[in-house]
Amino acid sequence: MWTMVFVLIVFLCYSSADLLLPTPSWVSYAPQAHLLGRKVHRVAANPEDDYRLRVPNIAEALAVSRAINPDSAQMLLTNSPNNPTGCMFDAAEREQLTTYCRSEGVGILADEIYARVEHGTREHVSLAELYPEGTMVFGGLSKHLPLGERDVL
After folding, report:
1. Disulfide check for 77: which of 97, 109, 118, 128 has CB 3.0–4.6 Å away?
2. How many whole angstroms separate alpha carbon 137 and alpha carbon 135?
3. CA pair distance 48, 99, nearest whole angstrom
4. What is the rounded distance in angstroms from the CA atom of residue 58 to the CA atom of residue 150?
5. Could you read off the pLDDT of 45-89 as tens digits, one per residue?
6. Which of 121, 111, 113 is nearest to 144 (CA)?
7. Short-list 129, 76, 65, CA closest to 101
């Protein structure tokens, strides 16, 4: 799985795109982008709001990215359900996020490794369903089809 993440971040290198990275996020995203010389702009989140990914915070990180490098493209990396917070996008958040990214020309790298794992009562819906022309989805089998038995204590 993380090989695929690295491949997608390599894409960022060749496309000269900056990475907009929500906070908190999986530990390997930023180091992999840095290995390739890509700029990482953190998208702030509020613990009182369960670290939800909000459009005004994306706009703030996007403005910083464009101010530093106006010729660069931007890619927003998302993870829903989020690791480490467990938050999932609801319908309104998906709509707001994809509408904003489309209007600003921001691509989305959607890490959907947990898409098929049961997470409460909310069904996973891919951002690619709402923004197919601007979303690259990646995932894997290891989370919902583990090879071998795992004991839960």
Report:
1. 109
2. 6
3. 25
4. 37
5. 988 988 899 999 999 999 999 999 888 889 999 987 777 777 778
6. 113
7. 76
44 contacts 61 by C-beta, under 8 angstroms? yes
- At 153, which helix (H) or strand (E)? none
Structure tokens given for 19:
């990475």
- The identity of residue 84, as a single letter, is P
Alpha helices in 1-153 (DSSP H): 2-15, 29-35, 55-68, 91-104
Q: Taking the CA atoms of the chain, what radius of gyration do you get in angstroms?
A: 15
Distance, in Å, from the CA atom of 148 to the CA atom of 13, rounded to the nearest integer, reads 36
Spatial separation of the C-alpha atoms in residues 123 and 100, rounded to whole Å: 22
| Nearest residue to 79 (alpha-carbon basis) of 23, 145, 152, 11 | 23
What is the distance of C-alpha 100 from the center of its chain? 14
Q: pTM value?
A: 0.79
Backbone angles phi, psi at 61, to 5 degrees: -65, -35
Q: What rounded mean pLDDT belongs to the chain?
A: 80
- Cβ atoms 99, 89 nearer than 8 A: no
3-state helix, strand, coil split of the chain in percent (to 5) is 40, 15, 45
